[in-house]
Amino acid sequence: MKSLIEIRNLNIAYGGPSGWTNVVQDVSFEIGRGEAFGLVGESGCGKSTVAYRLLGYGTINSLVQTGEVLFDGTDLLKLDAGALARLRGNRIAFVPQNPTTSLSPGMRVGSQIREMIATHRALPEGMTMERRIVELFALVGLPDVSRRYPHELSGGQQQRVTIAMAVACNPDLLVLDEPTTGLDVTTQRQIIQLLRDLRTRIGMAMLYVTHDLALLAQIADRVGVMYAGQLIEVAPCDRLLQTPAHPYSRGLIGSIPTIDGTDRQALGLRGVLRRDQMAGGCKFAPRCDFATAACRTMPQLLEPIGVARFIACMRWREAAAPQTAASAVRSGIKGALKSDRLLAVTGLNLSYGDPGILDRLVGRTSPSVVREIDLELRAGEVVALVGESGSGKSTIARAISGRLPPRAGVISLDGNLLTSTLKNRSVEQLRQIQYIFQNPDASLNPRRPIRAILQRPLKHFGIGSDGQTLEGVLESVGLHAGYLDRFPEQLSGGERQRIAIARALLVRPKILICDEILSALDVSVQARIVELLRSLKEKHAVAMLFISHDLAVVQQLADRVTVLYRGELMQLGDTATLLENPLHPYTEMLLEAAPALKKDSYVSRPPTVPTSKGAPGIGCPLAGRCPRQVGSICADMPPPVQKTGTGYIRCHIPVSKLPTRVVQSEQKQLA
Fold first, then answer.
1. Nearest CA among 402, 393, 336 for reference residue 517
2. Domain at 491, CATH number
3. In the beta sheet, which residues pair with residue 274?
4. Residue 440 pLDDT greater than 60, yes or no
5. What is the mean pLDDT of the chain?
6. How do the residues of the chain divide into helix, strand and coil, expressed in percent and rounded to 5?
7. Mean per-residue pLDDT for 305-309?
8. In whole angstroms, what is the distance from residue 48 CA to residue 479 CA?
9. Is residue 61 situated within a structural domain?
10. CA-CA distance, 596 to 664, in Å (whole number)?
């Protein structure tokens, strides 16, 4: 296979007048035409830094010390700004990790795609611009949202818009930097299926940067594993995931949670990446169980160990020997719960937008995006909200936190009615409910160092602190005191998210609203954060509303699961029972979409418009998509509530006639 892009001996440093620190060292790999190459590793390992250089991007405080980035024979590092601008978006496109900061908030999303196509004169012959834009939206599973602004779309919908924009010009190379971290499992699968189809149709090559190895297994041909700025293993994807050779690769894969709840941490990684503690030889030596004195002094270089396989480790044979892990299955309920009802939500209806004068005169209002939600949270309990992007999970969280006034319904805390807006809540109520946002870029002040960011809530709530308090909370989320004097832009996406989590924990809240807080974190840090949250729950009775699309993490942490679809509650039950025997067709669809650590034959069912003839909320919202739909009754009549052993479902099919099964048997065999 002829190479489309080659990276040769790339060395990159960050710094300035006071000195430079090498962050990418002697990285070399190539990607063939039509090939998908995955780049994985923990947060801060340099994978995004390498990816950005494939587009000629670099921050003002970065320096390419040596190396070449050859695209179709041309060194991108030597091109001027004009030549790079002609390539970007046209022959090399980019899908960022965070769509919120990559989409212009003042432009409708259709206009942003129009601008991309017009700039590169990439409109297919005989096709109108409007038709092409609608075609691109359909390609990524969206209706025509041309007239909407980014803030009117969910995070997952925003990401699909950025992908539509990236493929608008049919590029030769697509660089993807954690493109599915904010997406639910079914949307992730739809995007992966889309990318596979694009590869087949136009021969597009891909560099896929991610920490989600299970998802990577569905698309990548080869994978490069990075640690502390170096490539330490390169191998075909299936062989790497089944028989990792490097001790770090083994630990990384061993840290991945599975949907069956098996605890695999005995084979996981210990410690965290500390560049200030790295040895002069192998950089992984301080965390490696197989390291010797020679490992700490002798640099390790990539060496071939088989066909298309390379490793930088002198003791890989010892590390590759079978290891025994203590295998324990965690149940959905983690310890006894207090019976006190801490939070109660009753009859919650939510909508966005305020009707104009004409709408009020004719009695017309904007439709509800969340309808008739009843929910309660006890002290020390974790309730997970799961469902696809746009199902209303974050909208419910915004209402509970006071950021979105309800159209109808009541919210109470400790038996006291909560006012609908933040400004009318007491300081103590504000302290008791802390919100950790999905996107740390938008929730951390870019002009303040981390120390000031952490000290601000302490001052606001009158909580005393010292240096040890800040250092202690950083240590709990896998960071160290050296981060206190850095600014957010000097941190990776995963490191910024850990700062956001630490800030919320500092004020000792009663309730944590966790909105996809683990989606930007690599698996080893996820494991640390899950243990931290479990400790808060068990030792301090902190309750959590845990929004996530990662059902394996939900299995590890949540006591109960609430399944939402198009703003309606489909199923509620305790975690172990619901995940082992989903009952509701939609819950079953979510579990089927959860990827395993090997390529499978899953085919996504893209969202469709319900076929109900009535107004929103009349029929079942899953009508038109449900694999078990019963004639027209599902579309035209609201589904009844049926009790189950630990909760209830809303479905026209009697519980006794719904299939029972144990899900993810293939994943259980992997452990």
1. 393
2. 3.40.50.300
3. none
4. yes
5. 85
6. 35, 20, 45
7. 89
8. 19
9. no
10. 8
The length of the chain is 671
Predicted confidence (pLDDT) at residue 260 exceeds the cutoff of 60: no
584 and 502 together in one domain: no
527 pLDDT higher than 90: no
**Hey, is 140 helix, strand or coil?**
coil
Domain match, 647 and 517 both: no
Closest C-alpha among 82, 56, 81, 80 to residue 69: 56
pTM (whole model) above 0.70: yes
Neighbour count for residue 88 (Cβ, 10 Å): 18
- As a whole number, mean pLDDT of residues 12-27 equals 87
The one-character DSSP state at 271 is S
3-state SS assignment for residue 594: coil
Amino acid at 52: Y
Nearest to 178 by CA among 472, 480, 522, 482: 522
Maximum distance among all alpha carbons in the chain? 81
Query: If 0-12 CB within 10 Å is exposed, 13-18 middle and 19+ buried, where does residue 149 land?
Result: middle
Q: Which residues contact 61 (CB under 8 A, 6 or more apart)?
A: 14, 15, 16
| Last residue in a domain, options 565, 591, 621 | 565
Cα–Cα dist 148/108, whole Å: 5
Q: Which of 527, 544, 565 is the last residue of a domain?
A: 565
Instruction: Evaluate whether 633 touches 556 at the Cβ level (below 8 Å).
Output: no
Is residue 330 packed enough to be buried (19+ CB in 10 Å), middle (13-18) or exposed (0-12)? Answer: middle
Confidence of residue 90 (pLDDT cuts 50, 70, 90): very high
In this predicted structure, the answer to whether residue 642 has a pLDDT above a threshold of 90 is yes
* Residue-by-residue DSSP string for 133-198: HHHHHHHTT----TT--GGGS-HHHHHHHHHHHHTTT--SEEEEESTTTTS-HHHHHHHHHHHHHH
Residues 522, 42 contacting (CB under 8 angstroms): yes
Does residue 545 share a domain with residue 435?
Answer: yes
Q: What is the 3-state secondary structure (H, E, C) of 342-380?
A: EEEEEEEEECCCCCCHHHHHCCCCCCCCEEEEEEEEECC
Q: Are residues 308 and 353 in the same domain?
A: no
pLDDT digits (tens, 9 = 90+) for 322-371: 655 444 444 444 444 555 789 999 999 998 766 544 445 545 556 788 99
What's the number of domains the chain is made of?
4
Q: Which residue in the block uniquely carries the two structure tokens 């800040």?
A: 470
Q: Reduce the DSSP state of residue 455 to 3 states and report it.
A: helix
Contact between 639 and 621 under an 8 Å Cβ cutoff? The reply is no
CB 5 within 8 A of CB 173: yes
Strand pairing category for 328-329 and 262-263? antiparallel
Q: Is residue 435 part of a domain?
A: yes
* CA angle (256 as vertex; 204, 381 as ends), nearest 5: 120
487 strand-pairing partners: none
How far is residue 12's CA from residue 25's CA, in Å, rounded to a whole number? Answer: 7
d(CA 71, CA 454): 43
Which 8-state DSSP code applies to residue 391? S
Report the Cα 584 to chain-centroid distance in Å: 25
349 plus 320 within the same structural domain: no
Which domain covers residue 546, as residue numbers?
A: 341-565
Asked if residue 110 is part of any domain, the answer here is yes
Question: Are 663 and 590 a contacting pair, CB within 8 Å?
Answer: no
On whether residue 75 sits in a domain, the answer given is no
Question: pLDDT (tens digit, 9 = 90+) per residue, 411-438?
Answer: 999 989 999 888 899 999 999 999 998 8
Are 489 and 370 in a shared domain?
A: yes
- Clarify whether residues 164 and 280 are in a common domain: no
454 and 357 together in one domain: yes
- The side-by-side arrangement of strands in the sheet containing 568-574 is 433-436, 511-515, 543-547, 382-386, 560-565, 568-574, 648-650, 641-643
Distance between CA atoms of residues 350 and 417, nearest Å: 17
| Mean local confidence (pLDDT), 429-458 | 90
User: Residue 488 above 60 pLDDT?
Assistant: yes
